[in-house]
């Protein structure tokens, strides 16, 4: 519900966005800040980009910090949440966006690549969610948002390791939704197709004509869906498919 004093629907809330320095994560951070939310922007290597995003928010009167952490590691996750909450307040909204995309030919896919992809894309979402959920459950309010992929539903174009990691996020999302439905906490996912980000441009050789609509999606379109999930109270256990008409089979 929109705050009547500020006209901003997320006024007084705090969000933590993993992988928030670039692309989809940055777009979500900026959109949430516009809606009145304090934002913790997590990054691993892109320090300059993360600090730039923070500056974009604070110069507009918002509240944001950048925190370095490898969210596939439990100790880093605990540090990330602790620093974020100390600076901004309890985490109300978690966006599990951090991930990797390594296209590997099927015959070259090995256990090391499989384990690494699962750890970064799926285990990180579990670690982050488990760490913030205790506070959400005490306060009886929370939003979990998972950035999955159309690959979870179709197999995609990257490989089994990536598709499985993103499908696992949907199972994690559904379980949290079922377990927390009566506690004021919603759990939902967004499953984009090909979004015009550095990850897509560098990680695959795909072209926009693969999408029925004839173009890549934009990070801002994903951010709009994330804002909807952060502000709605009656949607949980759902996957929003933003795929330009590339419907899951």
TrEMBL record:
Q: What SUPFAM superfamilies does its record include? A: NAD(P)-binding Rossmann-fold domains
Q: What is this protein called?
A: 3-oxoacyl-ACP reductase FabG
Family stated for the protein in its record: Belongs to the short-chain dehydrogenases/reductases (SDR) family.
Species source reads Terriglobus albidus
Q: Which residues form the Ketoreductase domain?
A: 13-198
- Which key words tag this protein in UniProt? Oxidoreductase
* Top-level taxon in the UniProt lineage: Bacteria
A Pfam match = adh_short
Per its UniProt record, what InterPro entries does this chain match?
Answer: KR_dom (IPR057326), NAD(P)-bd_dom_sf (IPR036291), Sc_DH/Rdtase_CS (IPR020904), SDR (IPR050259), SDR_fam (IPR002347)
Report the record's Gene Ontology biological process terms.
monocarboxylic acid metabolic process
GO MF term list: oxidoreductase activity
């Amino acid at each position: 519900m929109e705050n009547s004093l500020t006209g901003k629907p997320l006024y007084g809330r705090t969000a933590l966005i993993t992988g928030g320095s670039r692309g989809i994560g940055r777009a979500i951070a900026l959109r949430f800040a516009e809606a009145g939310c304090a934002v913790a922007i997590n990054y691993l290597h892109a320090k300059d980009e993360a600090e730039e995003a923070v500056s974009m928010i604070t110069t507009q009167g918002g509240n944001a910090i950048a925190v370095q952490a490898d969210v596939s590691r439990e100790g880093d996750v605990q540090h990330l949440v602790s620093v974020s909450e100390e600076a901004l307040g309890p985490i109300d909204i978690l966006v599990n966006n951090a991930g990797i995309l390594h296209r590997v030919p099927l015959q070259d896919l090995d256990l090391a690549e499989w384990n690494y992809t699962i750890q970064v894309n799926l285990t990180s979402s579990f670690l982050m969610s488990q760490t913030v959920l205790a506070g959400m459950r005490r306060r009886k309010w929370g939003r979990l948002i998972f950035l999955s992929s159309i690959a979870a539903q179709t197999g995609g174009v990257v490989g089994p390791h990536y598709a499985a990691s993103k499908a696992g996020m949907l199972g994690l999302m559904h379980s949290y939704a079922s377990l927390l439905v009566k506690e004021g906490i919603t759990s939902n996912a967004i499953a984009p197709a090909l979004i015009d980000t550095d990850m897509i441009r560098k990680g695959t050789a795909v072209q926009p004509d693969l999408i029925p609509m004839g173009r890549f999606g934009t990070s801002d379109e994903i951010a709009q869906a994330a804002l909807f999930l952060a502000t709605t109270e009656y949607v949980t256990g759902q996957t929003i498919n933003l795929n330009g008409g590339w419907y899951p089979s």
